[in-house]
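Example record

One chain of 267 residues, shown exactly as stored in the release files.
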Amino acid sequence: MEPNVFTVRASSWGRLFDCAHAWEGTHILGMKKPTGVRALLGTAVHAGTAAYDRARLEGTPCTPDDAAGVLVDELHNPGQDVDMAQDGLSLAEAERIALVVLVKYCAEVAPRFEYIDVETTLDPLNIECGNGMTVRLTGTMDRARVAATEGGIVVPDVKTGTRVLVDGKAVTQGRAAQTGTYQLMYEATKKVTTVGSQIIALSTSSRPAAAVSPIFDARRVMVGEPDKPGLIEHAAAMFRSGLFPPNPSSVLCSPKYCARWSSCLFR
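Predicted structure tokens for this chain:
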């Protein structure tokens, strides 16, 4: 990492402010841990939905069965280390859930959107924060799309998991940092203006379900308002101090989620 240039991936903003000590371990010190079967399930769903959406965008024939082939291949040939015993979920059950979710997405969710980009590559975006401090936003939209709506360009982000829905509605709390980063980076890369973000929630619980959130303004969470600093400014202050505060009360403070857990003084 360059001196006074701190790189923050779009997907890691939530972790930075949940437990900066854990974030430092993963993103600065390079600590790693195997993923679990549920995370692998989510990755497979994302691969299948992206294949389906990309084909539609390119005008190439693609059925849910075709996308299912991509999903199954991703599930059985992961590109990262997986702890198969971590979640108490068999690969066969994960495949069953993932395929149900994929079909639901293709039939109920995808037709509602007019995508103009699917998992597009974004240029890094440097934000000068004063006193020689630069926060560099990075990340590929590997689980997000860009859609055209009557009101303008929107960034829908696909989220999977067992808690992405509450009372049948897509959970948006805690999502704005990542989608807001995507908005900023997409605007800078494509030289366009976005009007907001959406969450496409695909539940991978024992009863798969799907929901789409209303459009919301995620960008302002990152840049703030005249009298309210955004997350980028708060992060810059943290980076200037050189301190990455721990949070032993974090719900993610466990060996399952934190690569630094075994050596952490504060847990």
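Notes: The chain has a mean pLDDT of 94.
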